[in-house]
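Weekly modeling sync, notes
Attendees: AB, CL, MP (scribe)

Item 1: holo prediction request
CL wants a bound-state model with zinc ion before deciding which constructs to order. AB pointed out that an apo prediction alone won't tell us much about the pocket. Agreed to run with the ligand included and paste results into these notes for async review.

Input as submitted:
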Amino acid sequence: MDKQVKKKMLVPEALPCSQKKLVEESQTKNSTPKPSKFNDEDIQKKKDNKDYRGLLPAEIGTDYNFKREIVWKNAIGFLALHLAALYGFWVLLVHCYWSTVFWAVFVALSSGVGVTTGAHRLFSHRAYKAPFITRFILILFHTLAGQNCLYIWVRDHRQHHKYSDTDADPHNANRGFFFSHVGWLMSRKHPAVISKGKTIDMSDMKADWLVMFQKKYYKILYTIFAILLPSAVPVYFWGESWYNAFFSAYLFRSVAVLNMTWLVNSAAHLWGNKPFDKYIKPVESRFVAIVSVGEGWHNYHHAFPWDYRAAEFGSKYSLTTFTIDLMARYGLAYDLRTTPYHMVQKRAERTGDGTHIICGPYAEKLEKTGKLDEKDISEILKNKETGSVRRMVTAQG
Ligand SMILES: [Zn+2]
Ligand SMILES: [Zn+2]
């Protein structure tokens, strides 16, 4: 197939001519893959020998014939944990005091926000900077959530971004909902995950003694902060039984938060639209955004991973972004990184699936004049009814 035909096939059919031209141009200019060091035969040979060194994400791809090996100890453990959590939900609804219900919701929310604000946006992506006190509190909340130590969380997440939806992605969504949700935690790692995991730059995490302290003493810290503390508060402050508190505020609460986090890896890579980049798997999912306190705008996040808002529309539906904005107001977060709105527009125009509001008449105008005027922008904003974008456009032109 000659190059010209290949290039044309990548242009979305549904776009107006003006946009097709833009997409073609941008693909020529910006989406040219890095030159590979290997030819097809070498790549296959390397993969057969489980040697992934030097292979690019596109070359690793997904081998659908790969047979997963189940780690039965983990599978049975997760099954038991979920059954116990379901029982915990029943205990919470039927046997607990109302104060315990509120407490479980409070712990779920605060540990969830701890993970999204800290492990994800601060530690994994360095989307903003934070003083010691903020990092200390966020690591504490991360421990409360009980999602493995921060060091491993961040390594897996950085690897997920670098090798998204390939065999080197720990939760490759090409293997389906169950695998990307929880199945990956009960399967032996794909050799590509092990090989590429060693190449992830973790020097910043190694240099942070707080992170390394949590890694070293994780088991004991988990026992204290994820199990004992959430269970003890209802017992000592309003006389709940240890049994009820353990099943509701620890088991049900932590498994619920785990599933909400996992939905970002599963549902937000499978079902939704792709306004910013139709060539990647992550999607925009309002449902996931709500249950994961703001992490469901995943097509945007993978397109602009450094953006502390992890969404185009600021803190709308995002308790996480709201929390970071609040911290920034009191000096607890600073150097917040964002994406200039014109860059978002251009990206939506260039590689989006045509569902972004910028497509249509605005796309044609942008193509002709290179810029939208204030009136157009205010029209877009009016349609989206969002104050946060209005602020963003004013600030960034
Ligand atoms: Zn993702
Ligand atoms: Zn991320």
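Recorded for review: The radius of gyration is 23 Å.
Action items: CL to compare against the apo run; MP to circulate these notes.
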